[in-house]
Amino acid sequence: MAKEALSSLNVIARAPFHVYYEGPAFSITAKNKVGEFDILPGHADFFSMLIPCTVTISTDTDDISFEIYSGMLTVKSDEVMLFVNM
To answer: What kind of fold does domain 6-80 have according to CATH?
Structure first.
């Protein structure tokens, strides 16, 4: 299935003094104490503390990846807020 046919997430990914990404995305991959996980459109409401990992945000044109040492992620109604390196 083509990415264009899927619904998308609205993502804000930022650190205290840096915005990594703000806009639509098709998936987010990150890691918590349990292991690596993905957030896709339609995901249930979710909250997680993140551990050091590479976060990947997949958009219709590119994959944006960046290293973090800590963070938290919330998902509510396809709105994803990712705060890292605080």
So the answer is: ATP Synthase; domain 1 (2.60.15)
The residues, ordered by sequence, that sit 6+ positions from 26 with a Cβ below 8 Å of its Cβ are: 3, 6, 8, 9, 40, 41, 58, 59, 60
Cα dist from 29 to 35, 40, whole Å: 11, 9
pTM of the model: 0.90
Handedness of CA 13, 39, 54, 71 (dihedral sign): positive
Q: Is the confidence at residue 10, as pLDDT, over 90?
A: yes
Write down the H helix ranges in the chain.
none
Provide the residue ranges of all domains of the chain, joining segments of one domain with +: 6-80
CB burial class (10 A; 0-12, 13-18, 19+) of residue 1?
Answer: exposed
Find out whether 50 and 70 touch, Cβ atoms under 8 Å: yes
